Target: Large ribosomal subunit protein uL4
Amino acid sequence: MLVNIYNQQGKEIGKAELPSEIFDVKMNNDLVHQAVVTQMANKRQVLAHTKDRSEVRGGGKKPWRQKGTGRARHGSIRSPIWKGGGVTFGPTKERVFSKKINKKMKRKALFMALSSKVRDQEFVLLDKLELVEAKTKKMFEILRNIFRVLASVRNKDKESLPKGRTPGVLIVLPASNVKIIRAARNIPKIKIIRADSLNVVDILSFKYLLMPQEAVGVIEKTYLK
Model:
C-alpha cells in the first residue's frame, strides 16, 4: 500500500508503504454504520426531563376533605390533572440510549474508515508537521500548499480551494502539540486529534485525513495488538 509523502511546502518528496492490515481493509457498510450509531448513541446527553407528581414541590396536604363538599375527590394539588402538577409519561433523565459494540468490530470499522480515505485519495501523508510559532497564518499556508497540489492530483479546478478557505480536514498528530493546536483552532472545518484517539465518526465527518508519517507508527502500535 504505497502513498505519496509531501513536505509542508506541498512538494512530493517520496513514497511510503502503509500497513495493509489498517489501510487496505475491504469496506463493510453495515459494520461501519453500526459503529457510527453506537458512538453517537453513547455520546448522546439526556437533557429533557419532566417532573412527575412525586418531584413537584408542594401538594403534601389534601386540598379538601374527601366527602361532603360537592366537589370531586382529590388527594394533592400536584396531581397531573391539576395546573402546576406533575407530568404524566414525560421524558426523564433515566432514559438510556447507550449501545454496545464488540472491540474487534469497533477496531475493524475504524480500519475500514481509514482505508476508504486512502482509496478515495483523501489521505495526505506528511514527512513531518512542525511550527516554529503558534501562528494561524503559518498553519493556513501549510494547508493551502498541500491541498493545492492535492487538487491538481485529483484533476480538480483550483477554484475548489477558494481564497481564505480550506476543505474539512482532520489532522492526526502522533502526540499533543500545543503550537499546532493553537495555530489551527481558528481555522474553520479543521479538527486535531491524537493518533491513539481515532474514531470512526471523526474520520467520516471530514473530507480529508492529514497526518505526519510518525502518526502511522502510533496507530499501528495502538490498534494492532
Summary: The longest helix spans residues 136-153. The first strand starts at residue 2 and ends at 6. The helical segments are 20-23, 29-43, 103-119, 136-153, 178-184, 200-205, 213-223.
